[in-house]
Amino acid sequence: MQKGDSSRIILEEYxxxxxxxxxxxxxxxxWSIEKFAENLKVEIIREGDNGRELEFDLIGCAPALANxxxxxxxxxxxxxxxxxxxIRNNTSLIQDEVLAHRLGLLPLRADPRLFEYPALxxxxxxxxxxxxxxxxxxxxxxxxxxxxxxxxxxxxxxxxNDNVYSRDVKWVPLGQQAEIYPKGxxxxxxxxxxxxxxxxxxxxxxxxxxxxxxGIGKDHAKFSPVAxxxxxxxxxxxxxxxxxxxxxxxxKGCFSPGVIEIVxxxxxxxxxxxxxxKNARYDSCSRNVxxxxxxxxxxxxxxVPDHFIFTIESLGALPPAVLFLEAVKTLKAKCRTxxxxxxxxx
Amino acid sequence: MGEMKSNDYNSLKRAEKxxxxxxxxxxxxxxxxxxxxxxxxxxxxxxxxxxxINVEIKKIVKANEKVLSDADSLxxxxxxxxxxxxxxxxxxxxxxxxxxxxxxxxxDLNYSAPISVDIEYTRGNQRIIRNNLLIGRMPIxxxxxxxxxxxxxxxxxxxxxxxxxxxxxxxxxNGQEKVILIQEQKLRNRIILEEDxxxxxxxxxNSSTHERKTKTNVVGKGGKYYMRHNIFQDDIPIVAVFKAxxxxxxxxxxQLIGTEEEYMRRFSASLExxxxxxxxxxxxxxxxxxxxxxxxxxxxxxxxxxxxxKDILAINILSHVPVVDFNFKVKAxxxxxxxxxxxxxxxxxxxxxxxxxxxxxxxxxxxxxxxLMFEDLFKxxxxxxxxxxxxxxxxxxxxQFDIVKHMxxxxxxxxxxxxxxxxxxxxxxxxxxxxxVTQVLSRLSYISALGMMTRVNSQFEKTRKVSGPRxxxxxxxxxxxxxxxxxxxxxGLVKNLALMTHITTEVEEEPIIRLAxxxxxxxxxxxxxxxxxxxxxxxxxxxGNILGITKNYIRLVNVFRLLRRKAMINGFVxxxxxxxxxxxxxxSDGGRLCRPYIIxxxxxxxxxxxxxxxxxxxxxxxxxxxHEGLIEFLDVNEENDSSIAFNESQIxxxxxxxxxxxxxxxxxxxxxxxxxxxxxSPRNTYQCAMGKQAMGTIGYNQxxxxxxxxxxxxxxxxxxxxxxxxxLINFDxxxxxxNATVAVMSYSGYDIEDALILNxxxxxxxxxxxxxxxxxxxxxxxxxxxxxxxIMGPMIDSNSKKPIWKHEIIDNxxxxxxxxxxxxxxxxxxxxxxxxxxxxxxxxxxxxxPDYCDVPVLFKGSVPAYIEKVxxxxxxxxxxxxxxxxxxxxxxxxxxxxxxxxxQKGVTGLIVEQEDMPFNDLGITPDMIMNPHGFPSxxxxxxxxxxxxxxxxxxxxxxxxxxxxGGSKVEDVCEELVKxxxxxxxxxxxxxxxxxxxxxxxxxxxxxxxxxxxHMVQDKMHARARGPRAVLTRQPTEGRAxxxxxxxxxxxxxxxxxxxxxxxxxxxxxxxxDMFDVDVCNTCGLMAYRGWCHSCQTSASISTISIPYSCKLxxxxxxxxxxxxxxxxxxxxx
Lengths: 346, 1134
Prior knowledge:
Chain A: Keywords: DNA-directed RNA polymerase, Nucleus, Transcription. Chain A: It is found in: Nucleus. Chain A is flat and about 80 Å long. In chain A, strand 2 (41-48) and strand 3 form a beta hairpin. Chain A is built from 8 helices and 15 strands. Chain A starts with 8 loop residues before the first strand and ends with a helix. In chain A, strands 1, 2, 3, 12 and 15 form a 5-stranded antiparallel beta sheet that branches. A 4-stranded antiparallel beta sheet of chain A has the order 4-11-5-9, covered by helices on one side. By secondary structure, chain A is of the alpha+beta class. By secondary structure, chain B is an alpha+beta fold. Chain B folds into 6 domains: 42-179 and 363-435, Rna Polymerase Beta Subunit, Chain: C,domain 2; 191-319, RNA polymerase Rpb2, domain 2 (Dna-directed Rna Polymerase Ii 140kd Polypeptide, Chain: B, domain 3), CATH 3.90.1110; 505-590, Hypothetical Protein Ta0175, Chain: A, domain 2, CATH 3.90.1070.20; 670-705 and 714-769 and 893-1012, Dna-directed Rna Polymerase Ii 140kd Polypeptide, Chain: B, Domain 6 (Beta Barrel); 777-888, CATH 2.40.50.150; 1050-1120, RNA polymerase alpha subunit dimerisation domain (DCoH-like, Alpha-Beta Complex). In chain B, strands 21, 26, 27, 28, 29 and 30 form a 6-stranded mixed beta sheet that branches. A 6-stranded mixed barrel of chain B has the order 33-47-34-45-44-51. In chain B, strands 10-11-12-13-14 form a 5-stranded antiparallel beta sheet. Classes of the chains: A alpha+beta, B alpha+beta. The interface between A and B is large, with 50 and 39 residues.
């Protein structure tokens, strides 16, 4: 296999042999902030799923930087989650600990920036500060439906409240919170309404108070503000030889739809099909070309090492763009601390 | 064989022709669920028990129907009928209520039903008939015909707190679920040719009837033939036996054995021996035998010598061969046959029977074991009645002697219950004593319970190191699972039934005998030896007994099979010819292994696509297939007379049967493994052992149970890659494991030696989270002196007016409240017991409070638990029974054990933050990282395929199948991956989570079903600095349960000695163990006490030294046996 452009990560059939060579993008010349600032580009590509998903390109930086943002988004940007559950009554089938765990994983609407981190020894009793705690209540009792649908034996028809959903978790103002947050439930409630918490049967009851606090994903995954934040390097596909005719069709089938297009050119003779790379961006990098011995000679699969396609899927408490900015702020703060520490040594 | 080879080409051609004809039958496997639908997986247990309580028990009672008395010749008790009711419990005196198994489990009761009899007996001169008289209680097998769960719908079962998927087949004794394991036994009533340790050929026959069990051997020794039997001192010349049986002439004897030149030559020495011993007539022979009898200790018999020996010959020798009016013809023929077999064995050693061959084995099930036990108890019951009658009838009393008043029911009840609960099977009349017949049903997981129901225990000694009985027998095919056996001492001896194995129950012999005679079998009684041994006839046997001879055995066999397929004969009766013995064997006895096969006629399977369609639509059941003669059961011996095709394409000209579905040759546990045919075979065996330790769900009623130990998974999942077996046994409804996204790569150094890396975020979200339930139990008894246990409310601290710390969680009723957290050493039930329970507290009847001492139920364990529920009830002795269910929720931690379904276990080596985990283009981080070094040596290719199929299944949104010898093909799975934009090899482009750079290698990743095993660090971790000591030696206690010390053993000691670390030795062996200061008298060298030497009566020269307490103990013990150890002390400086 011929060695291609050394500035690209080459996807070979069985390995990515030059993967490590690109850890430092700027080889040779000394790193300068000006040059970095000049090269760094951020392009927003797509915003989707009710503004909960953001795809943007981070171009011109080392993977370490992109990765730092990813890691911070996953585990260090704070969010609010239920931390303490005070169970008054739980006669349902679900165990107290499991119920508490499930409640803890519910995503909340609250903006973590409005709250403090909880005071360190979290007080055992229920009086908590309105500065760092949100209080919720879940009170559901299952009963027989007095007016069941005729001839139906389906649980949802003959019982009331047989399914406990996340919408049954209600926000309860603490201290001054009712005045500070006039929008209340809308601003601080539970994000999704239809998360099934528990199933019940008549006579069973759940009554619990919950305290939500601000925390980070490092402590527990429930505090992570994103479903996931990830990046991938921009794929690049080069055709080293023209691919024509039937081969072109096969080549097209080897990649994700829209990656390879077939151009018809009269000059190419009777079978006028020829494959061209249309847009390699959305290729899944499945490398299935390598299954065809004749095709693999004609293609070189590479990835651009300093072009990151960043995707942030927010849980919904904050828009992904804001989350990214938070991540940047966190990184900045961390750098400051680090520099301070270094200065202190000297 | 030779013929086969010469015709190779022709047969190939023929096969080619048939290959074209053979059509693939789509969905043939649907027959398997249809087969299992009838009675489920444990049908053999239930059938056997049903046969016992409905048929056999009546036979037993019939056989022992009369009780007579020596005191009164007119007195008798006659049993007219016996029946077993439905299980009930005594609510209060004489009020019974139908019970459910679950109630018995919770209340520690027996799930048993009354055994009632109708009797006719005499009272004085009256003849009285009494109906429905209780003589005892019979433990009832769950889901048997008398069980309340029989034929109940899911809804009804749920109402009874019973899981619809629970297989039943076990008993509930004292609230414990007990299984009577299937016992593997040697064949009875057949002639087995063996070689004894001296190299002699022996044909032996284990006879077994209801009365006795005997073993008769015919030995060929030094060119002569002898009979070897327990009641004779030494080997008896066989001719003498013939003569004693009334076959006196040598010619007649010879004709019975066979008049071929070879046989005559071999037997002449035996005839001569008899002549030299001067045995010519029957009378002489009988006296000869009488002299060689084993001397009885108590010669009680009133009979003469002749009658006695004739009796022995009739009853003890080959006792299963019936003798009517001392007509020994059949028995003599049988012995002649044994001699002939010995001769054949001497001529051709290959004829020696294989003892491990499965056709020579019988499986004993709950029914037959219980019937042995019941018969023994019933005989004892009758014997006792007789004793009572003998004792009481001569006495003159006001009331007439009424035997009914003396019938005690507790003997049978307790006898049966004790046998099942202890597993000790003691049958007096057979001198049988067996331990470990029953076991507690393992409820660790659903699979472990199922696996236990199919377990087969061999009678073979476990300690012996012989490979024969342990190795896989070809005749096990389809009957016993080739994978599921434990490692270690039980390897190959403990086996498990395959999925479709059926174990026969006895079938009535009478109709078969009649049929055989109608089919041209001639009775041997009317024939001479010459005709019996004619070259052209085959001898016909029924269950090892000679039925007669037949000229046209082919017709007999064929017609017999035809009738069986037409359902005119019971489907479990087997018939097969044995050509080298020129006989036809018909078997109708119980305990044979058999298995259904599709019948093939003229190279075409009788089961056609249309039949399968009818089955699918529910127009047909499995029984219809049997009745229509499309499918029949073959036992191991008949299998050997058939040509069975593995699949449709292998049907050839001579094929008689077709395998229903190949995956059924595996058992329940091996059926869980996806793609087992791609794995190295020991891996499947390992998984069979590990599947039983996986936690998950144990039944729909798991939350209603209060077991001593129960492990549950919080979020169990059905596996992404299923198998047909998984669906058949409902493992997908009661799963034990979770689908983890696995990346096969190395990560850090914490994954060596099979350790796994877990993703912390996955654990946070509930992966591997489990619940551990334990129970605490106590009973409140009443004692003989009118005192009773009591429970008190919490003790209140006088200052704070709050309960003391120990009693914090108990309610006013003295029992801990549900939902409370219990910590180490907290009281759960504040029970106290009267100090004196035996003697009356105050004979003067003065009402004073008896003294009580506290016997609280404490919680032990370093990690607190929660009280899930409290049950207050009463047990069989009417004592209060309090059960508490304790719960712990555990998240996986480092050191917890996980395993895939391919015998690949590993402990958690490291828990890694999500951001440190590698991620792929889609942003997927694996839940688990597994080191690729686990693959090359284990060769678990099945796991690789499972991952691939799982990945494709997730992408496509469907389950793939990894059924043995079938399942989704790798090719198709790869195409499906490509369709969804994945690499066809399942390898993805990953980035390091730590540096953010791409990894050099493509990573094989996807979902694999992982089981969490019961071994968790929390239950094992142990350390001690200071702690309890043993009373006698003052050394630290041993073991984790007693908070013991960590032993510095002999080998460790050797190391320290070798290294020369003397101070370290002193520290570990004395200072941190049992150091003790003793005073030693320097004058006498004995130990002094408090500076005073008792032997010298002085305190003049006493020194204090430190020695191990155990050393001091040794000196004192030596002194007590008159050995005086004296210590001579020196200053260390000298």
